[in-house]
């Protein structure tokens, strides 16, 4: 949309694309970029025409973290009262699946932004890390919580306490990244993954994402009950009838997202 200055936002079929675009600062997340990113993402999330959201950066950087220059002089009170970036709660509660396509640096808030997405695809040039410790602080966008859940507590501790970067292949082995893709093919491959997702039944996608998120937060017994109710509820959709009818008729389903 034309009014954005730090991101590009574009609809391709049923996929909403957001490209972080502050090349002069390696896509560092300043308050304008964060506001625009959340605004664009929530608009896609609210649209029944969008079945998947992609967030990507440039070849050099997904995002090199929160904008250190903007943040440096903030007081305790300013950070405690929401900081420069209110609104993440809405981003984290989006129902639409979100794919992060990471090339180059995904550091600090950049790594944390990728971890707020459901799937992380990485170019072979990607570098992940939580270097906040080098700045005399600690991760502040969820890194100390999501990284241990993603890669295990001991490996996360090493990364958070040393601040070192992890290359794409190590991130894939660790389970942070689902696939490493040659850099030149990252966007095409991401477009295919996103289009594959976006073609599915939207209510089924919402329910599946909801259940996957519940798995991060609930004990197993509660999560299994959550899933069981969601599975039963899926039988109230037209898409369930269509999906199962299409299977028995040996044809592709024609989902209407209802
Ligand atoms: N903030 C501001 N500017 C940045 C940032 C950043 N995070 N990263 C890079 N830039 C700028 C540089 O200052 C430089 O600008 P200029 O040309 O005007 O000097 C430009 O981008 C290019 O960067 P470099 O010249 O440094 O490029 P290199 O290739 O030499 O190095 C690195 C690339 C290694 C990525 C290096 O730029 C770097 O270390 N960046 C900082 C990484 C970092 O520490 N990130 C963590 C930031 S803290 C954070 O994310 C906390 C999140 C929680 C916030 C919670 C709020 C509620």
TrEMBL record:
InterPro entries given in the database record: ClpP/crotonase-like_dom_sf, Enoyl-CoA_hyd/isom_CS, Enoyl-CoA_hydra/iso, Enoyl-CoA_hydra_C
GO molecular function annotations of the record: enoyl-CoA hydratase activity
Protein's UniProt keywords contain Lipid metabolism: yes
Residue intervals passing through the bilayer: none
Catalytic activity field: a 4-saturated-(3S)-3-hydroxyacyl-CoA = a (3E)-enoyl-CoA + H2O; a (3S)-3-hydroxyacyl-CoA = a (2E)-enoyl-CoA + H2O
Keyword Protein transport attached: no
Enzyme Commission identifier(s): 4.2.1.17
Pfam hit, one: ECH_1
GO biological process: fatty acid beta-oxidation
Keyword terms of this UniProt record: Fatty acid metabolism, Lipid metabolism, Lyase
Annotated function: Could possibly oxidize fatty acids using specific components.
Family: Belongs to the enoyl-CoA hydratase/isomerase family.
Name listed for the protein in its UniProt record: Probable enoyl-CoA hydratase echA8
Organism: Leucobacter luti
Upper classification of the organism: Bacteria, Bacillati, Actinomycetota, Actinomycetes, Micrococcales
